From TrEMBL:
UniProt key word Zinc-finger: no
Alphabetized UniProt keyword annotations: Exonuclease, Hydrolase, Nuclease, Nucleus
Protein family: Belongs to the REXO4 family.
Main location: nucleus
Location(s) in or outside the cell: Nucleus
GO biological process: rRNA processing
Protein name (record): RNA exonuclease 4
Any one GO molecular-function label of the UniProt entry: 3'-5' exonuclease activity
Amino acid sequence: MMIQIPTKAIAFDCEYVGVGIEGKDNMLARISIVNMYGHCIYDKYVKPVEKIIDYRTAISGIRPKPFQKVQLEVHKLLTNRIVVGHSLKNDFKVLNLSHPRKLIRDTANYVPFRKALQIVKTPSLKLLAKKLLGIDIQSGEHDSITDARVAMKLYIMHRNRWENDIHR
């Protein structure tokens, strides 16, 4: 098995389960990280620290790891790297992590994507994938590896302009 290494930019996505009253609060259940080449460098299921009220998906074969260990491992992978993803605010929240704003590339907030689609509201990753990459995702269960790969593809396609916009 070849070990995949992190690159200067990495993309991640999280999947959640519902906890709290009526299962309306999000708790991390899975996190996946891919490098710039779309190779998965981290993929872990997490045993939530609260009682799960709503699984939201039919997840099987979960090998949970304690949340604190996953949080530390993810923090180490993200440190000093450009982090790419879609609606990363939610993912950082469930991880209870922060990241320097200058190193975040969030496809949900990238204005040129909205202009290309001629929309005002925040586009879904599914819409961006369909319209800008010509691929269908999320037709059933969400897959955090696929979602991270799609976010990275969008970033790579627009990286030069995106980085130029940031460094102005």
